[in-house]
Amino acid sequence: MASSMASMSRILAKDTTGSHPWSSALCGQSFFRTHLGFRDGLSVACDLRSRGVVVARSALPSPVVRASRSNIFVCKAEAHVSGNIPSSAPKEISQYERIVELLTTLFPVWVILGTIVGIYKPSAVTWLETDLFTVGLGFLMLSMGLTLTFEDFRKCLRNPWTVGVGFLAQYFIKPLLGFAIAMTLKLSAPLATGLILVSCCPGGQASNVATYISKGNVALSVLMTTCSTIGAIIMTPLLTKLLAGQLVPVDAAGLAISTFQVVLLPTIIGVLSHEYFPKFTEKIITLTPLIGVILTTLLCASPIGQVAEVLKTQGAQLILPVALLHVAAFGLGYWLSKFSSFGESTSRTISIECGMQSSALGFLLAQKHFTNPLVAVPSAVSVVCMALGGSALAVFWRNVPIPIDDKDDFKE
């Protein structure tokens, strides 16, 4: 789900004693550079070229770790930091940033509340119908693009195997799982189509947050989400046509056009704006985090509200296949990573990327391109299952230490 979620991290160092996972490295105020944006919440970087220190620049809700043009070294949210660090205290974040941090950290709570409101008082959220829903999702993708640079895409070339395995998990394992579950449980044609459609959607930005919480590789997570988002214009309509075309008519061309308009075009505009109008972009994205929190909550609650009556009558039938899809995707994504000889941090990252996707996009495509309203129901249920399942897995992994000598599979 293109979510504006989770918390903002400062400069995080791995505590080798394992006693405090939130340990922060200190940087002199003269070296600090902060950046607040919707996709990455608050980014903090230390320019320590003269000291050669490796630091982390973490960005959440959807944590972006970017390489700057001034050769600032960046790494994943938890990093090994050398001992020669300035002793001055880090810069305090503003009250606004603290509020955004709190609101985004509580994302699963907002999803639960949104679900309750959607089911028992649908009129409070159903005003966000197809056209407004499209605008809202497009805004989230634009916000994501505003935090990206061309350098983020160059990283794909430096990490072909790691990103490739993640892409394979997202667009091969997950769609086949959706198809297999739909056929095994003998779902009706529209519900089976909806399950297949949501399984073919790209990774959601909520996965970046879950990766951060689980001590995974945030930079890799962001890169994989970006790549799957770009690939969605081809892969989502193609796979939906191949796997669900035998069940109901699938307008692959229409799906591709809508995916381009809602996902790829806003992302491209955001990237170009950041690249060629950086000062203007920096001003804009200071306003997006709070808007993103509100929009994301609405984009989660609205699908539930629009299918509330169906959920009341067929909810039990729908929860099992959707939950099974996410659980199996988490498990197989992790297994595939271990089979590929990746380290624990990378394996957790790929597992979460495989198990969490943009359910909001699936809901929108189902509404616009399928006549039967039941096709949209699995995507609505997926919003809740994805958020709760991903959060639970992330919290579990957070309490499972990563080996100190864990293999690093990501090249900055």
From TrEMBL:
Cellular localisation: Membrane; Plastid, Chloroplast envelope
Entry's Gene Ontology cellular component terms: chloroplast envelope; membrane
Bilayer disposition of the protein: Multi-pass membrane protein
Pfam families according to UniProt: SBF
Recorded superkingdom: Eukaryota
Keywords, alphabetical: Chloroplast, Membrane, Plastid, Transit peptide, Transmembrane, Transmembrane helix, Transport
Keyword ATP-binding: no
Transmembrane segments: 99-120, 132-150, 162-181, 218-240, 252-272, 284-304, 316-336, 374-397
Keyword match Transmembrane: yes
Function of the protein: May function as sodium-coupled metabolite transporter across the chloroplast envelope.
Alphabetized NCBIfam families for the sequence: bass (TIGR00841)
Family: Belongs to the bile acid:sodium symporter (BASS) (TC 2.A.28) family.
Name of the molecule in the record: Sodium/pyruvate cotransporter BASS2, chloroplastic
Species this protein is from: Acorus calamus
